[in-house]
Amino acid sequence: MEAVLKNVASAVELLAVAAYSDAMSQWDEKTLSRAFHWARYCEHVYTRFHTNSAGRRVVEKQLQHTNARLRDAFADYREVSFMDLPRCEHLLLLALLSNPHLPISTMKILFGKKDVASRYYDYKEVTGLCSHLIQCKSACKVLCPFSGLSAVDADAEVQGEMLMKRLDALLSQGSDPQQAEHFLHSVLLLSEEAAHHSCLVITAALLTASDSGTQTSSQSFLLNWLQKEHGMLQHMGSTLPSAVLKDLARAHGKFRDAYFSALKKWASEMEYSLNDGEWLPEGTAPSLSFQEMVEHFSDLFDACPSLRRNAEDELLALKILDGDFDARGLSVWGDILSELKK
Amino acid sequence: MVSIGSTAESMKELPFLGQIVGRLCWNPYVTVGDTNRGLLLQCLWGLYSENPSNAVERKANQWIRKVLCRLATEEENPAAEILMKSTGVPPKEYHLRVLKKMVKQHQENIGKTCCPKKSTDPSCRCSCDVIQTTSEAFVPLIDCPEASPVICSLLQHPGTSFTDALSEDFLDALNSTDSNLALDETALVSVWYHSLPRLEEAVLDLLESVISTGSAPQNLEQQVLKTQLPKACAHHCSMFLVVNDIFRSILRQAEGNLVVQSVIQTFTRCFLKELEELEPQAKTYICTFTMNNNLLSAGKSQTSTSLKAFFPQSPPSLLVPLLTLPSEMPQEAWKNHLEWLTASLQRLTEQEEEEEDSQSSRSHHNGFETWFLLVQCSHWVQVAGELLVTSEAEPCSPLLWLLTFYYHPTNRWHCRAAHLEEAKKAWSHLHALSSSSVVSPTADHLQPLITLLSPKPQPPSPAPLLTLSLTVYSAVFCRLPHSQSVEFFHTVVHAAGLHHEAACVLRSLQHRLNEGSCSSSDTVHVRITKLQSTVTHMQAGGNSHTALNSRAQEDTPAVTKLSVKKQPLAHVRPLAEFPHNINASHSAEAE
C-alpha cells in the first residue's frame, strides 16, 4: 500500500509538471510514453480501490496531502480528486496540450498517424493518440444523422450504461442513498434544453436488460427517483415516442403505475373549452392535446393488458363522480372512455 | 506553403488560408479520414513557426495550439461531459463506445433487411435501400478500423452480389483506400467481385511475393491458398477468367520463367480442388475414360458446361483429359493417356502452323491457349518426364515431343525438330549416365550434358530448361544409389549455374508426389530431399556467382515489369465485358 501511495503521489506531481511547468519541453518520446504509463497506473489504482471504501479513503488522504503541496508550488493548481484518477490519461493530455511550452515535435508525435500495426491503442504507444481520438469523435458526428435506427440514440444508450454502472457502484457500497440521489440530480437535471436528452438517457438505463440483482435494484432506485421527479416524468410522457413508452411500461411495473398516475393527473387538469369544442391542457400539465392524451391511454393499455380492466374501472368510477353524464364535454373521464371504446 | 517561406509571408499571400484551415478542422468529414486529417495537420505544421519573429507569427502559433487542444480535448455535449466526470469514464473510452454502438446498430439494421438470400430470379430485387444508404453513410469511414464490421457486413450481404445495392462512392472509396481492412473471406471475395483493380492487385501481390523470394518457396501451395484466390475463383467464374488473363499476360512477358509457371500450376490445382467441393460432378466422367482410349473420344461431348465456362478459350477436347490428375488414374494407364494427349496436341499445333502459313491470326491465339492449358496442368508434363527417365526402352517419342512442346511452345524458325534432336541427345546422355556402372562419373562423362545446359549465344538458342528438367528427373528416379545420383546432379547443376531453376523443378515434383501418394515410394522422397539440400547448399555458396548473375539478369526483366504493373493491365479485358459473363455464369450455376 505504501508503494501505491507513493506512486500515486508521483503521478499527480507528474501531472502538475506537465500542466504548469516548462520542464516537459525536455521530454522525448520515451519520456512521454512513460508519462502516459503513469497515467494508466492511476486508472488501475481507481479500479482497484473504488469499491473498497477503506483503501479509497487512504488514497484520498494521500491525494489531499499531495494537492496541498502542489498548491504551494503552482499558483493556478487544479486539484486532483479520487474521481479524477480513472480519467488521468485525459487529464495528462489536456495538461500537455494546454501548456504553451509543449514542443511542437511532441505535438507532432501525439497527432501523428496512429500505429497501424497495433489496431487498438496500446498504452505504451503514444504516437497518434490524438489522431485516433479525433477520428472517433468525427466518426460519431458523421454517423449521427443516420440515427433513428433504434428507439434510443447510441450516445444516450452509452450514457445510460454509464449511469447504471455508477449507480450500481454507489448503491452496492452501502453508502448513504442521498449520495446516489445527489448523483442522479447532478447528471440528469441539467437544464430545460437538456431535459429531452436526459429522458433518453433514463429510457436507455431502464431498458438495458438487467441480468443481475444489483442492476434490478439500481433500476428500481432510478424509478423511485423518477416518481418523485414529476417534471422529468412529465417530459418523458409528453416527448418520448409511444413505442418507447410502451416498452418502458412493459418492462417496469413501477413505471407503468407512475405513468398511469401521471396521465390521470394531466387529464384531470384539462379544461373543456366551449369555443374550441375540445378539452385543452391547463396549468402545469404538459401541452398534450385531448387526442394525444387518449392515444397515450390506449398505448398504455395495449402494452399492459393486465392494467386495462382495473384502469377502465377506475376511470369509470371517476366519471361517475363527475355525474355520470354521457354528453361530451362534461367529464374528461367519460370522453376518454368513450374514445377508448371506439 | 513550404515554398512561400515564413508564416507571415504565407498569411500575406493567402489571407484566407487561416480561416479555411480553421473551418476544415471542425468539419468531421475532413477529420475522420486518415489522409485528409494528415493533410490538414500538415497545413497546420506548415503555418507554425519554430522561431516566431513577429506578432502575426506568434498569434498563428497560439491559434494553432489552441485549435489542436480543443480538437483533442473539448467535449461538445455538456451533459455527456458532466456524466463522464461523475462516472469516471475518460472521453476516449466514451467516444469509442458510442462509435461501436452506432456501428452495431447499423449492422443489426443490415441484418434485418428483406433482401433474399440467393435470388434465382434476377428481377426479384430488394426494395429497401438500406444497403445503399448505409454504404453511402460509411464512405467517409472506410479507413476507420471500428467501422470494419459494417463494411464487412455490407460486402458479405447476399443482396450485394446480385444487385447494384452498394453505392458507387463506397466502391470507389474501397478501391482507393490503402488501409488493411480486416476482411474475412466472404467480404474479401465481395471486394474482388466488385472491384477489378483490387482483384488484379491481389494476383500481382501473390506473384510478386513468390518471385521476390528467389525460387519457388517451400510452401507455395500455402501461399496460394492463403490469398483465398482459388476459393473466390471457384465461386465466381468471372474472377477466374480475370486471373487467367493476368497469368497469360505475365507468361507472354516472362517466357521460360519457371517460377511463374509453377505458380500458375499450383493455383490451378488449388482452384480445381475448391471447384470439386462446390461441384463434385464436374469431373466424374473421368472414371469411364481412362481404361480404354476408345472411350475418350466419346466422352468429350460430356464435358461439363461449368468447366467450359471456366476455360472458354481452351480446346474442349483436351479439357477434361488434361484437368484429370495423374493420381485419379491408375499408373498403367498413364502412358496411353499421354500418348493420346500428345497426339491431340500435335494435331492441334500442326493445324495452327498450317493456318499460320496462310496468315490467319486466330491460330496464334489457339496455339497459345493450348499451351497455356498445358501450363495450368503441367502435372502431365512431369509424369511424361518421369516415364521417360524410368523406361528402359528407346526414348518414347511422343513423351519427348510433349516435353519439347512444353518448354518450347512456339515453332519459331521451325526449330522444333532441332529442339527434339537436342532433347533426344540429352535423354541418351542421361540414360547412359544413370544406367552405367561407373562408380563416379568423371567430368568427361558429364561434359556433354553441361554443354547442353549452357546457354548458347546465337539463335535459335533453346533455353536449357528441357535438359535441366530431364536431368532433375533422372537424378530423382534413376536406380543409382543416392550418393551417386546426388553427386552427378550436383556437378552438372553447379557447372551450369542453374540452381534456382533446379530447385523450382524439384519443388514442383515434390508437390505432385505429395498429392497422390500412390505412385511414389519412400526412396523417391528421400532422394528429392537430398537433392534439395544439395541445391540449397549450392544456392548458399557464392562460388558460381558469375553464372548465377547471368541467370539473374534473364529473370529480372520479368520481375521489374511485374513490380511496375500495379495499375490495371492493358491486356486484361475491360470491366464492361464482364457483366455478360457474370450473368451467364450465374444462370449456369443457378441451374
From TrEMBL, chain A:
Superkingdom classification of source: Eukaryota
GO cellular component: Fanconi anaemia nuclear complex
Biological process annotations from GO: DNA damage response; interstrand cross-link repair
UniProt-listed InterPro entries: FANCF, FANCF_C_sf
This protein's name: FA complementation group F
Species the sequence originates in: Oryzias latipes
Gene for this chain: fancf
Automatic annotation (TrEMBL), chain B:
GO cellular component: Fanconi anaemia nuclear complex
Domain of life: Eukaryota
GO BP field: interstrand cross-link repair
Entry-linked Pfam families: Fanconi_C
InterPro entries per the UniProt record, alphabetical: FANCC (IPR000686)
Protein name: FA complementation group C
Gene behind this protein: fancc
